[in-house]
Write a structure and sequence with these properties.
The chain is mostly helical and 284 residues long. It has 11 helices and 2 strands, in the order αααααααββαααα. Strands 1-2 form a two-stranded antiparallel sheet.
Length: 284
């Protein structure tokens, strides 16, 4: 009768062998199912359901290649756009794949997927290739001179490196500047909340009026026009706030330009006297 430890090892060996056989059986079954799916689809390529099943099976391959392409691109390009383009490449590969050549589909479809993604990037790029080429030459020349000189090169040094005149170099810089674009949807910084701050959120609206300044102007207008009659108040408001001319104000109030000018001078003198007495209130 064998020792207990011998029996335990035999049982363990049987379990391991069983697990390995089950794994191989599962792998073979999956491979057989894929082969059967391909054979059925190639027998009837109009079957949309079978084609969609193949797309779902190889979709992770599209996402993987999309992430690899995205890692070498500047910010502003979305992964979803690359994946969408890659799916079209995958569909073309599924349609054109020849099973009789003995090539694995994964090997065959990757160049088509990546090619579709690159075609999509070219179609999204509004900058001509010549301009991109100029920008690349400028960048390469600048890096070379910075490494050689240990400082930023001058325009003349850049022109000599590129073997062009200074005027041609200046034009080249202007043309190459068209390459630089900033996406307003680009993330500026992350916050603790669910909404991150984008570039568009920090842009200054030069046409927008500062609310604080608007309130100050309103308070100042109320202070300045206090104690003035209707025509005097309108002259101040129309001249300083609406930026109308004396002639335009005269037409509005049915007064002559000289009369408006005379009234304006009197109002300013009176306001200077009144505000001078209240100077301590303003902290001046």
């Amino acid at each position: 009768m064998p020792a207990p430890w011998v029996a335990d090892r035999l049982r363990l060996g049987i379990c391991v062998t069983s697990i390995m056989e089950d794994g191989m059986a599962t792998t073979l079954t999956a491979a057989d199912e894929t082969l059967e799916l391909w054979q059925t689809f190639k027998a009837d390529m109009s079957n949309q359901e079978l084609r969609n099943r193949l797309v779902e099976k190889y979709l992770p391959l599209v996402k993987y290649n999309g992430q690899r392409v995205l890692s070498r691109l500047p910010e502003g390009v979305e992964l979803d756009d690359l994946v969408s383009a890659g799916v079209f490449g995958l569909l073309d590969a599924i349609k054109a794949f020849d099973m009789s050549r003995g090539v694995k589909f994964e090997t065959y479809c990757v160049p088509r997927i990546r090619g579709a993604m690159l075609d999509e990037l070219r179609s999204m790029d509004w900058v001509p290739r010549l301009v991109r080429s100029k920008a690349s030459k400028l960048g390469a020349a600048q890096k070379t001179l910075e490494a050689k000189l240990g400082r930023a090169p001058t325009e003349r040094e850049m022109a000599e490196q590129l073997e062009i005149t200074v005027k041609e170099f200046e034009k080249m810089v202007i043309d190459a500047n068209a390459v630089g674009l900033i996406s307003l949807n680009k993330k500026w910084y992350e916050t603790d909340s669910s909404k991150d701050v984008s570039e568009i959120d920090i842009l200054k609206d030069k046409k927008g009026e500062d609310p604080t300044r608007r309130i100050q102007k309103k308070d100042l207008m109320r202070l300045v026009t206090k104690g003035l009659n209707r025509n005097e108040r309108l002259i101040i408001i129309l001249y300083y706030y609406e930026e109308m001319t004396m002639k335009e104000i005269g037409s509005t109030l049915d007064l002559s330009e000289s009369r408006v000018s005379q009234m304006h001078s009197c109002i300013v003198q009176r306001l200077q006297s009144q505000l001078g007495k209240r100077r301590p209130e303003f902290g001046t």
